[in-house]
Write a structure and sequence with these properties.
The protein has a domain of about 120 residues: 3-Layer(aba) Sandwich (Rossmann fold), CATH 3.40.50. The chain has 5 helices and 10 strands; from the N terminus they run H-E-E-H-H-E-H-E-E-E-E-E-H-E-E. The chain has about 180 residues and is an alpha/beta fold. Strand 3, helix 4 and strand 4 form a beta-alpha-beta unit. The chain starts with 8 loop residues before the first helix and ends with a strand. Helix 1 packs across helix 3 and helix 3 packs across helix 4. Bound molecules: adenosine monophosphate (AMP). Adenosine monophosphate binds next to strand 2, strand 8 and helix 5.
Length: about 180
């Protein structure tokens, strides 16, 4: 008798991500990652697979985006033995910050990073949960590069390929574990 082949990370993620139609508003299919977080083996496999992808680009540090980017960025940083830099919503970081504005469907939003957290010439891996339109990641790439940082890669467990987000990261390699559409 031969042992069954282990499921691919794509299969594992697809089985542990729940589609929630019409959340947070009509027409959006929300990718709910909470079943993945509740499954220790699946979550560990996700972090290990992301770590392998990110390590190949040899970053000096990770930059995780509030808030679901933190869920993946923190264990990934520990796993890879790399510093973790947090990009936060306005008013959350206590020291001098650099900020970036980006467009939402209606209006605009901002993200901030400690101005001294990004070191000129160092290579950064951006981490978030979902690459959708790419607007958030594009804004954070511009924040990192404005401060003199270089991009090693951008990495996401999930990508909504039909929204074309990776095209907005021109020049930055995007890694994702499972691509929808
Ligand atoms: P975007 O700027 O469009 O690439 O969107 C990025 C952020 O929005 C990610 O940090 C996700 O957390 C969230 N997001 C966008 N679309 C979805 C979706 N369909 N399901 C879950 N999260 C989403």
């Amino acid at each position: 008798m031969t042992a069954a082949a282990p499921d691919s990370i794509e299969t594992v993620l697809q089985s542990l991500i729940r589609d929630v139609p019409n959340f947070p508003k009509p027409g959006i299919v929300f990718k709910d990652i909470t079943p993945l977080l509740e499954d220790t083996c699946g979550f560990r496999a996700c972090i290990e697979a992301l770590a392998e992808r990110v390590a190949a680009h040899k970053p000096d540090a990770l930059v995780a985006i509030e808030s679901r980017g933190f869920i993946f960025g923190a264990p990934l940083a520990l796993h890879l033995g790399l510093p973790l830099i947090v990009v936060r919503k306005p008013g959350k970081l206590p020291r001098a910050t650099e900020s970036v504005a980006y467009q939402l469907e209606y209006g605009e939003d901002r993200l901030e990073v400690h101005a001294d957290a990004i070191l000129p010439g160092k290579r950064y891996a951006l981490i978030d949960d979902v690459l959708a339109t790419g607007g958030t990641a594009e804004a954070v790439v511009s924040l990192i590069t404005r401060l003199g940082g270089r991009m090693a890669c951008a990495a996401f467990p999930l990508e909504l390929g039909f929204l074309g987000g990776r095209a907005r990261l021109a020049g930055t390699v995007a890694e994702s574990l499972v691509v929808y559409g």
